[in-house]
Amino acid sequence: MKLIRYGNYGFERPALIDSQGGIRDLSSRIRDVSSDTLNPESLAQLASIPIEDLPRVSSGVRLGACVADVGKFICVGLNYLDHVRETAAAVPAEPVLFMKATSCIAGPSDAIIIPPGASMVDWEVELGVVIGSLAKNVSVHQALNYVAGYCVVNDISERGWQLHGTGQWVKGKSADGFGPIGPWLVTRDEIGDPQDLRLWLSVNDKMRQNSSTGQMIFPVNTLVSYISKFMTLKPGDIIATGTPPGVALGAKPAVYLKPGDSVKLGIEGLGEQTQTVRES
């Protein structure tokens, strides 16, 4: 299934995408696409609903973040070797973890707002992993069983705030709107191999990132298992699994986002995002 949330910000309704690409409302069946509907039993019930019984939604509606009430937004840094090289960092011996504030989460086509004082706003296309079952100390072999599905994430970053001064990553990653997710939450059964997905990002129609999740240093099952040893993962938590090369930080010279820029990104089977950059 491809689950979405649509409507004005703060008033989104749950829906799914039918086989013709149309939107079908789910609000009579579930409260939202959130922690209480992402477990295997709830997803199986949703999959059994005759789609033709669900109301159609007109095209052109705003799509919100594909998961509501996210508990934790966990990110993995430096997880593609060529990205490690372009940033002149050391190759990590184990996953590098940090958090984005959940208040940064936005819809897939919401504008990127440059915060006051920001001058180094960067892009990062990433595979998002949405947890569906409580996971604590899970094995690598069993880790994917705890995944509800996958989505596109743009891990937008303010590099000056991330790297200069006190150098706190969470500070540079958490501004309002810096975490677009969606358009769809695609359930795990539709993605045969999460390590065989093309992901890409362009700025003003110029390709900046073009890679495959097969290039991850630490694959999805390793990440879920590793993170679950340090914190309990709960349904609705999101893991952003790192970005491939091609970010502004790694370019010479670095050219960061500015008002009027258009950012487009996508992952095979998971849909596309389009954002326009604006001043605050």
User: What proportion of the residues form beta strands (DSSP E)?
Assistant: 25-35%
Average predicted local confidence, pLDDT: 96
Which structural category fits the helices and strands?
A: mainly beta
Second rung of CATH, namely the architecture: Alpha-Beta Complex
CATH class: Alpha Beta
- Alpha-carbon Rg, integer: 18 Å
CA-CA gap between termini: 36 Å
Widest sheet, order of strands: 4-3-2-1-14-11-10-17-5-6
Shape: globular
Q: Indicate how many domains the architecture comprises.
A: 1
pLDDT < 50 stretches: none
What do we call the CATH topology?
A: Fumarylacetoacetate hydrolase, domain 2
What's the helix count? 5
- Approximate helicity band: 10-25%
Looking at this structure, what is the CATH superfamily?
Fumarylacetoacetase-like, C-terminal domain
Order of helices and strands: EEEHEEHEEEEEEEHHEEEEHEEE
User: Main β-sheet: number of strands, strand sense, barrel status?
Assistant: 10 strands, mixed
Number of strands: 19
Structural summary, described in words:
With 280 residues, the protein is mainly beta. The model has no long low-confidence stretch (mean pLDDT 96). It is built from five helices and 19 strands. The chain has a single domain, classed as Fumarylacetoacetase-like, C-terminal domain (Fumarylacetoacetate hydrolase, domain 2), CATH 3.90.850. It starts with a strand and ends with a strand. Helices cover 12% and strands 30% of the residues. Strands 4-3-2-1-14-11-10-17-5-6 form a ten-stranded mixed beta sheet. Strand 18 (262-267) and strand 19 form a beta hairpin.
